[in-house]
């Protein structure tokens, strides 16, 4: 059994003889035990430490925000958690999250914290909340400031992070710098190449973002305006992030018919930039693309063998979430929403748009694979949560014509879920050792402003679904492997030395869950359901979930990257 004693910890870290500086531990003086009182003691559980090692029986003692003892704890706790029959593991790190603005709307992030997430990595898919142009600042103020009362006045990452810290947040927050946001800031939303001067300006913005605490660069190459950048342009920005030991997280240019080419581009971009690569929500969408998963892993493994640092992430669902505009190639989305809607009404362009959208749906299967998840206008709310095939079956309308009219009515602002993957495809991806678990979702809640939309169930269930469905029910892998994919592995990608594992001296971001009952409850028809089996969650040593209920505590921190921390 691993020796997790305080003495061993002090010896390993060179702190032997400095015991007075480490408070809260049971100390032996002349053979007489002095019983200490800790802030929190978790008793009677089995510890899975996040490294992939097997579970061991142990108690955990916490002082402040740190783990100070693991093993039989003799002292008492001001707060004692009974973990009998439960698993104690590190808090889950959501390596691909969209909890950006939702964390400001409701800082509790209930759908995330209640599934065990203690750290969110946002600023994904090329979109971040900084830097902000005047136009985007006004848009956010109009959309979120007035609707939810969010104080949006920042323009850079320092201002964003300060705002979050001043408000208080329920879990830890990390952000990447969005390549699409930066390109929109400098070049705009047209499909034009960036000039050398514009590339230099974008590099300066990446440098500023990294110096202010961003952890890397993200791209969303299926979304405008980031999609208008070529490989070399992105590599130029990536080199700047690499100088801060950051990484490059990409939503690739394609995840279906041209998946192999997209993976090749991602690898080539990272190689040119000399930067670590994270391939986001890796999938092979569409029935005709299932065999491409193995081909892509062969390419990735070869690049890793050649010395590249590549990892991937994936959510455990057969459907993805995006916007209805994503049925159309990026060339039809250039110039923003108004230009896109104008093309939908142009007799010259519309036939080509229809062919492209129908081909995309054919790749998924048929119109039953497309579900409407969000609209803005009250008269269209009845479509939310329904598949296009079901909607047009009642009206007799052509499905493409329905989609076209809905997009025009909503000025392009329609959310969708696409059922493009299979259980076999999930299995082949999740079991790969380079793949970690991520939600690709934001925060929601069963009540309040974050209950007003119809989100993908991954907002509520990603991590418990892996533990319950894929570990306990299907035996895809054991709990230590699953926990590693949610904790130690993403911590290594980020370079978080003091989180993602359980050891003496590390931060007490912890989850206590019942391995016999943990499971997701959210589904596509009724997504606003919290997961079950997550008993307790601690963030920075503070109990946020206690007995399955939120305590109201907001102990989260904005984790600002320090140069060289990787």
Descriptive account of the structure:
With about 575 residues, this protein is an alpha/beta fold. Among the domains are: about 180-280 and about 280-315, TIM Barrel; about 320-420, no CATH class. It is about 35% helix and about 20% strand. It has 18 helices and 23 strands. The strands form 5 sheets. Strands 3, 4, 5, 6, 7, 20, 21, 22 and 23 form a 9-stranded mixed beta sheet that branches. Strands 11-12-13-14-15-19 form a 6-stranded parallel beta sheet, with helices on both faces. It has a 3-stranded parallel beta sheet with strand order 8-9-10, with no helix packed on it. Helix 7 packs parallel to helix 8 and helix 8 (about 230-240) crosses helix 9 (about 260-275). The longest helix is centred in the middle third of the chain and has 16 residues, at about 195-210. It is globular. The relative contact order is 0.15. The model is unreliable at about 1-35 (pLDDT under 50).
Mean pLDDT: 92
CATH topology of the domain at 179-279 and 281-315: TIM Barrel
Could you say which overall geometry the principal axes of the C-alpha atoms support? Answer: globular
Q: In total, how many beta strands?
A: 23
Termini gap: 29 Å
Number of helical segments with 4 or more residues:
18
Low-confidence parts: 1-33
Question: Main sheet, how many strands, which sense, barrel?
Answer: 9 strands, mixed
- The CATH homology group name of the domain at 179-279 and 281-315: Metal-dependent hydrolases
Counting helices, strands and paired strands, the structural category is alpha/beta
Q: What is the percent of helical residues?
A: 25-40%
The Rg value, from CA coordinates, equals 24 Å
């Amino acid at each position: 059994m691993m020796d997790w004693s305080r003495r061993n910890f002090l010896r390993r870290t060179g702190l032997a003889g400095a015991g007075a500086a480490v408070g809260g531990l049971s100390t032996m003086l002349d053979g007489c035990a002095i019983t200490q009182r800790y802030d929190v003691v978790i008793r009677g559980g089995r510890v899975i430490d996040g490294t992939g090692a097997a579970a061991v029986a142990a108690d955990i003692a916490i002082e402040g925000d740190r783990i100070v003892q693991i093993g039989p704890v003799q002292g008492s706790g001001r707060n004692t958690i009974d973990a009998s029959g439960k698993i104690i593991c590190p808090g889950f790190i959501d390596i691909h999250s969209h909890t950006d603005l939702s964390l400001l709307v409701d800082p509790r992030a209930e759908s995330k914290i209640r599934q065990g997430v203690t750290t969110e990595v946002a600023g994904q898919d090329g979109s971040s909340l900084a830097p902000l142009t005047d136009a985007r600042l006004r848009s956010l103020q109009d959309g979120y400031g007035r609707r939810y009362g969010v104080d949006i006045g920042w323009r850079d990452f320092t201002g964003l992070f300060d705002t979050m810290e001043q408000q208080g947040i329920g879990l830890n927050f990390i952000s990447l710098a969005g390549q699409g946001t930066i390109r929109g800031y400098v070049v705009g939303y047209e499909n034009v190449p960036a000039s050398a001067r514009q590339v230099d300006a974008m590099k300066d913005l990446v440098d500023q973002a990294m110096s202010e605490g961003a952890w890397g660069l993200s791209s969303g190459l299926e979304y405008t305006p980031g999609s208008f950048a070529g490989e070399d342009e992105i590599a130029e920005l990536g080199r700047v992030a690499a100088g801060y030991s950051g990484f490059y997280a990409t939503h690739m240019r394609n995840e279906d018919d041209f998946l192999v080419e997209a993976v090749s581009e991602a690898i080539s971009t990272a190689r040119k930039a000399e930067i670590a690569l994270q391939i986001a929500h890796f999938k092979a969408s569409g029935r005709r693309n299932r065999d491409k998963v193995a081909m892509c892993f062969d390419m990735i493994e070869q690049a890793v063998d050649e010395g590249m640092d590549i990892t991937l992430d994936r959510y455990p669902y057969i459907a993805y979430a995006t916007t209805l505009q994503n049925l159309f190639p990026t060339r039809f989305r250039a110039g923003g929403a108004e230009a896109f809607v104008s093309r939908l009404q142009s007799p010259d362009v519309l036939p080509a748009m229809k062919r492209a959208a129908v081909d995309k749906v054919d790749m998924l299967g048929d119109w039953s694979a497309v579900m409407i998840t969000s609209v803005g206008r009250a008269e269209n709310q009845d479509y939310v949560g329904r598949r296009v095939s079901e909607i047009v079956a009642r009206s007799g309308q052509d499905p493409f014509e329905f989609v076209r009219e809905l997009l025009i009515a909503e000025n392009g602002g329609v959310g969708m879920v696409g059922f493009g993957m299979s259980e076999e495809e999930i299995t082949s991806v999740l079991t790969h050792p380079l793949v970690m678990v991520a939600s690709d979702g934001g925060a929601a809640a069963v009540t309040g402003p974050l209950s007003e939309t119809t989100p993908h169930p991954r907002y509520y269930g990603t991590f418990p679904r892996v533990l319950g469905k894929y570990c306990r029910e299907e035996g895809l892998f054991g709990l230590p492997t699953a926990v590693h994919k949610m904790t130690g592995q993403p911590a290594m990608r980020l370079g978080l030395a003091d989180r993602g594992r359980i050891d003496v001296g590390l931060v007490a971001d912890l989850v206590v869950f019942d391995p016999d009952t943990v499971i997701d409850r959210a589904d596509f028809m009724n997504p606003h359901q919290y997961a079950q089996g997550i008993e307790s969650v601690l963030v920075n040593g503070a109990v946020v979930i206690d007995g399955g209920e939120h305590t109201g505590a907001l102990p989260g921190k904005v984790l600002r990257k320090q140069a060289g921390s990787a």
